[in-house]
Amino acid sequence: MSDKTIQVSQHLVEWTDEQVSRFWDFESHFPERYFTYFSARRVIRFFRTYLKKAQVILDYGAGTGHLVARLLETIQKSMYDKAKANLVSKTFTAATVEDTKRIVEENGGGFVKTMWCGDEECENAMKERAGVSSRVIPFEQEIIGDVCPVCGRKAEKMVIWGIAY
C-alpha cells in the first residue's frame, strides 16, 4: 500500500432542467444500463407473492419502462395460464345427446366434445334436446368416437358444444 493520500474537493452541482434533459437524452441511447432493463425479472421474482395482491404497480425507474414491460409479460402469462386451466377443467367428452345434456346441467355450463356427422338437422337437434349449440370445430381434431351422438351415422368431425349466453 502507498502512504500517499489523494484529496478530492467536493462541490455541489446544480442541475438545471436543460442539463437533466440533456443527460436523459444521452442515457436514452443506452437502455441496457437502466436498472429495470437488467433487473426487472429478478425484481418480479422477488416480489411475486406481493404482485398477486397488488392493484397498482408503478415503474419508478428511469427510461422506457422495462419493469412495466416485464410485469405485463408476467401478468399476461398468469392470466393465460389461469384461463387455460379453467377451459381444460370445464371441457368434457360425451358420446350421446343425453350425456351432453347431463354434463352441462351437472356442471352449470362448460363445453362438451362430441363427434358429429355434419348434418345441420343433427346440429339443430342437439340445440333442442341438449340445450347447446356448436361453438367450434377445431382445426386440430381428436377422434373420440366414430358416430354422431344424434343420428348414429358415421362422424368424422369433432365439435365442441356449449351454451350460448
Question: Can you lay out the helices and strands and say which pair or pack?
Answer:
Layout: H1 17-27, H2 35-51, H3 66-89, E1 91-93, H4 97-107, E2 111-116, H5 120-130, E3 133-136, E4 157-162
Parallel strand pairs: 1-2
Antiparallel strand pairs: 2-4, 3-4
What's this entry about, in short?
Helices cover 45% and strands 12% of the residues. By secondary structure, the chain is an alpha+beta fold. It has two domains: 17-87, no CATH class; 90-162, C-terminal domain of ProRS (Translation Initiation Factor IF3).
> Taking all residues together, what is the mean pLDDT?
83
CATH architectural group of the largest domain:
2-Layer Sandwich
**Reading side by side through the largest sheet, how are the strands ordered?**
1-2-4-3
User: What's the gyration radius in Å?
Assistant: 30 Å
How much beta, percentage-wise?
A: 5-15%
Report the uncertain regions: none
Cα distance spanning the termini: 81 Å
Query: Helix content range of the residues, please?
Result: 40-55%
Q: What is the fold-level CATH name, i.e. the topology of the largest domain?
A: Translation Initiation Factor IF3
Form type: rod-shaped
Main structural class: alpha+beta
Q: How many structurally independent domains?
A: 2
Q: What is the makeup of the main sheet? A: 4 strands, mixed
Describe the structure.
The chain is α+β, with helices and mostly antiparallel strands. The chain folds into two domains: 71 residues, no CATH class; 73 residues, C-terminal domain of ProRS (Translation Initiation Factor IF3), CATH 3.30.110.30. The chain is 45% helix and 12% strand. The chain is built from five helices and four strands; from the N terminus they run H-H-H-E-H-E-H-E-E. The protein has a four-stranded mixed sheet. Helix 2 packs parallel to helix 3. The longest helix has 24 residues. The protein is rod-shaped and about 95 Å long.
